[in-house]
Amino acid sequence: MKKNITRRDFLKGTAVSALGIAATSLLGGCSAEQECPTVEPCVCEPSKNAWLGTAPEIADSEITKAIDCDVLVVGCGCAGTFAACSAAENGAKTICIDQYPEGASSGIRDTIAAIGSKQQIANNDNPDKFKVIQMLQQQSNGYGSMELYHLWADNSGEAVDWYTDILDKNGIKFLHEVDDHTVPSNYPLADVGHSIQWGTNEYSSQFSMKFVNDYGKSIGVEYHFKTQMIKLTKDGNKVTGIIATNENGEYVKYVANKGVIMCTGGYSRNEEMLKALQPETIKFTTINKSYPGMNGDGIKACMWAGAAFDDIHSSMLFERGCIKPDQVGNENGGELFWMGSQPFLKVNLNGKRFTNESAPYDYILHTLLNQPYQTYAMVWDSNYTKYIGAFETHGCSRLTPHANGTESVMPMFLITDIMNPQLEADGYIVKADTIEELAEKLGLPVDNFKATVARYNELADKGVDEDFGKEAHRLTHLDTAPYYGVRQAGGYFICTMDGVKIDTNLNVLDENNLPIEGLYAAGDCSGSYFATSYPNLLAGAAAGRSVTFGRLAGRNAARR
Predict the structure, then answer these.
(1) 465 backbone dihedrals φ, ψ, rounded to 5°
(2) Residues facing residue 377 across a β-bridge
(3) SS3 sequence, 360-373?
(4) Digit-coded pLDDT (tens) for 177-215
C-alpha cells in the first residue's frame, strides 16, 4: 500500500530528511531506520551499505587446522612487507599472508616520501616538517589527522634509511630527489621523494619486494602465499586472528597472540564500492591502472569487526589518460598517456584555453566537469623535449634527471621512443604540419583554435601569463612543425585513499574512535590521512605513509 506522507510529516522528519535522501542516494539506498519517501514500489536498495554485506559464517567443523603466531600481517605489499620485517625484528613470531603467489602481489612503489632521512640531511635539503604537515592538512581540507602527519614526519626518515640499506646491499641505489628551488612555482612543493634508480633493470613493482622479503625470511618471517583472508576472529571486543583459505581451498584459522596487521590495500578494483562511495572517481577515470586484488576485502573485514570507515572518500588520479580524437568522455576507456602531466597548452572542445595547466594533477580533471563533454585536448610542437627539460616538474611527472642527478622515475626516451610513437600508431596522438590541420584532426573549431594558439604564443613572448597566471618558464611557443595533439577526458586511476580509521598506535578505531584491541592497519586500507585530493607535490606521499606506518605497526604489535 502507498503510505501518505504529509508536508508536515516530511518537515518534522518522521519520514526522512532532505539530507538523508541525498546521502542515501549516494550511498546506495534507504537506511533501515528510515521510511522510504518514495511512492511504492520502492526502488531503493535495502541498505545504504549494500556493498558491505555481512561476515560469512564458518563453522568450526569446516576449519582444517589452526596456525599460531604472535603477529599476523595480511597482505604482502608496500605496507605489509615493512610491517612483517619490523615485527620480526622486534622479536615476534611473524607470519605474512598474501592471496597471490610469491612475487605476484602489489609490490613496493618506486618513490617513497620521508623527512629526516640521512640523504636529506647530507644533501642539506631536509624539508621543514611543519610546512609539509601544513601541505598535507591543506590538501585534505583538514579531514586528515595532524597527529598522524606528525607520526609520519617523525618516523619516515628511519623507514627510508632502513629500506635504502637493504637495497644498497643488493646493489640497487635508492636516492633522494633534489629539485631546483630557485625556479618559481605557483604551488608549494618539498623534496620528500626518494626513488629507485633503475639503470638497466627492467621496471617491476615487485622488483624491490624480493629483497625485503628475502631479508624477512632471514630473520624468521614466514610467508604464506596463495592464502586468502575471509574474516577476522574476535574474543569479545578483542581481535584474535583470522580465518583464511589456503592454496587447496581449505579453511585455516590463524591465531595471532599479539595482533593482526591489515595491509590489504584499497578498493579501486571493486566497482560496487566505487559506485556507492565514489561516483565522481568513475567520472574522472579513463584508465584504471590500480593493482589487482584491490577489492576492499580488508576494509570490509575490519568493518565487520566493528571498525569505523573514513567519512570522506577519495582516490589518487593523475591526468594521464587519453582517448581517440573522435571520442568524448571516458565511457569507452582509453590509454595511458604519461606526458599528460606536462604543462603544455590545453584547450576545450571549443578550441579555447580554460585553465592554468600548471597545477596538481587532478585539478584539471575536477574542472573538466565544467567543460563541454568533459573533454579537452593537449597540444605541443616539435620542440617539446626542450620545453619539458625547462618545465622542472616534480615527482613522477618529471622526465629529466633531478637537480642532484637522481634519475627521474620515467626517463624521456620511454616517452619519445616507445610510449608516444605507440599512441600515435594506435590513433590516439595526432600529428599535423599546420595549426589548421592539427585543429581539424582533433575536431576543434579551426578559427577559435588558431586564435588561442596566437594568444598563447603572444604570452610566451611576453613571459607573463596574463590570462591564467602560469609560471613564465612553463609558457611555451607552438610554432615549429610538426605539431602534435591528443584528446583527454579523464585520468589514470592508481588507488583509493580512504580506509578504516586509525590512531597513532596504528590501532584500528571503532565507531566511537576507540581502539580495537589486537587490530592494526597500514597502507591504502587505512584512513584518517588523505581526503579530497592527493598531494602530488609531495612525491611518494602515499607510499611514504604505507612503509612508515607498516614499520610502526609491526613494532607496536610485537611489543604489545
Answers:
(1) -90, 90
(2) 347, 487
(3) CCCHHHHHHHHCHH
(4) 999 999 999 999 999 999 999 988 888 888 999 999 999
From start to end of 138-273, where are the E strands? 174-176, 193-196, 222-224, 228-235, 238-245, 251-262
Quickly tell me which residue has 618559481 as its cell.
Answer: 184
For residue 523 the three cell numbers come to: 597502507
Cell of 50: 549494500
296: which 3 cell numbers? 576492499
Burial class (CB in 10 A: 0-12, 13-18, 19+), 167: middle
Residue 7 confidence (pLDDT) above 60: no
Residue 23 DSSP SS3 = helix
DSSP H helical ranges for 179-222: 207-218
Contact by Cβ (8 Å): 56, 245: no
Give the span between the Cα atoms of 293 and 291, in whole angstroms: 6
| 108 close to 75: Cβ distance less than 8 angstroms | no
Letter for the amino acid at 180?
D
Q: At what angle do helices 146-169 and 129-139 cross, to 10 degrees?
A: 120
Best CA proximity match to 535, nearest among 419, 394, 338, 333? 394
CA 485/CA 385 separation, integer angstroms:
15
- For 309, other C-beta atoms within 10 Å of its C-beta total 18
Q: Which sign does the torsion angle of CA 148, 544, 186, 363 carry?
A: negative
| CB neighbourhood size of 91 (10 A) | 12
Task: Kindly report whether the global pTM for this prediction surpasses the value 0.85.
Answer: yes
Residues 6+ apart with CB under 8 A from 472: 184, 463, 464, 465
Provide the pLDDT for residue 47.
55
Which helix (H) or strand (E) covers residue 282, if one does? helix 279-284
Please give the domain boundaries of the chain with CATH numbers for all domains.
1-50 (no CATH), 61-284+295-312+494-558 (3.50.50.60), 320-489 (3.90.700.10)
Residue 72 pairs in a beta bridge with 95, 260
Beta-carbon contacts of 142 under 8 Å, excluding residues fewer than 6 positions away, are: none
Is 196:174 a contact under the CB 8 Å cutoff?
Answer: yes
